[in-house]
Write a structure and sequence with these properties.
This protein is 60% helix and 8% strand. By secondary structure, it is of the alpha/beta class.
Length: 304
């Protein structure tokens, strides 16, 4: 049932011929991008969101003025926050729209290369000496960032920091409540601010980051500019089993397709994780040898 109760534009509607409203055009771009990222057709998204496929098409073309309820249904079906779907109207300038048009339909690898090129052109990377003594571990939940990172930091005599703990301290609430009460957009803002404080601190350290930091392009580039990054790679099964072994049964509660979604997320993010300066395949090496390899990278960095 379509709860949006929005009129549909006829195919010969003059609205389609007029200049698109920048906000609606940007909304259409984001909707298409999120749908493509999840491998959904327009028809499958309309069915999952229980909305009219025709009205969804109008929205994606930037000529459909959707209700809040309609957008909420789309966000739920796309597994994103309403804020992520709606975005920021300030980012709807002609320049940003042109950039989005150029990048539309590109693969994750091409997008990652584009971000790296922009950083090379406009970013001011930290000196190699400063970056070498600052190490960041990235990867999905269950990769071993906390255990391997803490052990490596202790062996090298460095501080160890959990970036998500810094987010919780600033927010004054557990991470789960940050997402539930305020959404992913607010979490990403706090994550960025926490990382900026570590960058400004300049002292050597090892930091374990959140699993999704790579999808926040500007935050991930900041991390790569100022830290030696290590991707702790693992198979979906190992990610799953390690989380369960830690006593957290939430991954499978009420989610029969959780493993399939985990595989999708890992596949989507692998090109971004692959931009790290080092990769440690924890599934192939085992945790003991992975610990040795991580410690060797950290020791080498700390010795400079």
């Amino acid at each position: 049932m379509d709860l949006s109760a929005q009129p549909e534009l006829p195919e010969n509607s003059p609205a389609g011929a007029e200049a698109k409203d920048p906000f609606l055009a940007a909304l259409g771009e984001r909707t298409r991008a999120l749908r493509a990222r999840r491998g959904m057709t327009r028809k499958s998204l309309a069915k999952a969101a229980e909305v009219s496929e025709r009205h969804l098409a109008n929205v994606e073309m930037g000529v459909g003025n959707a209700s809040v309820q309609f957008l909420r249904q789309l966000a739920l079906a796309l597994d994103c926050s309403l804020a992520e779907l709606v975005g920021d109207e300030s980012a709807s300038s002609p320049e940003w729209l042109m950039i989005r048009e150029i990048l539309r339909g590109r693969s994750e690898t091409e997008l990652a290369e584009a971000r790296a090129s922009l950083v090379t052109m406009f970013g001011a990377p930290a000196s190699d000496a400063a970056r070498r003594q600052r190490i960041a571990l990235i990867g999905l939940r269950g990769a071993g960032k906390s255990s391997l990172g803490r052990a490596a930091a202790e062996r090298a005599g460095l501080r160890f920091v959990e970036l998500d703990q810094r987010v919780e301290e600033v927010a004054g609430m557990p991470l789960a409540d940050v997402f539930t009460l305020h959404g992913e957009a607010w979490y990403r803002r706090l994550e960025r601010e926490a990382l900026e404080k570590l960058v400004a601190d300049r002292r050597p350290l090892v930091v374990a980051t959140g699993g999704g930091i790579v999808v926040a392009a500007d935050t991930y580039e900041l991390l790569r500019r100022h830290f030696v990054t290590i991707w702790l790679e693992a198979t979906p099964e190992d990610h799953w089993n390690r989380v369960v072994e830690q006593g957290d049964g939430r991954p499978m509660q009420g989610q029969p397709a959780a493993m399939a979604r985990l595989r999708e997320i890992l596949a989507e993010r692998a090109p971004l994780y692959g931009l790290a300066h080092h990769t440690v395949d924890t599934s192939a090496l085992g945790l003991a040898k992975s610990r040795e390899k991580v410690e060797a990278i950290v020791r080498a960095a700390a010795s400079h």
